[in-house]
Design a protein that fits this description.
109 residues; two-stranded antiparallel ribbon; 2 helices; 3-stranded antiparallel sheet; Alpha-Beta Plaits; alpha+beta
Length: 109
Amino acid sequence: MAYIVGEPCVNCKYGDCVDACPVDCFYQDDNMLYINPAECIDCDACVPECPVDAIFPADENAPYDETQTKHVAPYYVWLGENFAYSDENRVTDKVQVDHGPDWDETKAT
């Protein structure tokens, strides 16, 4: 199961996770980082590196929608599913990450 980046990353974007990723599956926009689930190898390397605990297994805590009788992905998964993964927004090194307005130097490594 691939990992996803959740809401705690919005407006922070520390980038420690990017350096830990062995397959360079991280991407960014103005607000947050994303993991491309098609590229994630589920190695778990990025999870402990995130200072705001924003990385989760894609199937964790999926709410149940009784009207559709299926599990519905959390909002941050939908953000990732609608995100346009491209070489232009791929980040392969922490120095490429543009920190957000909520970035806290005391949490950065």
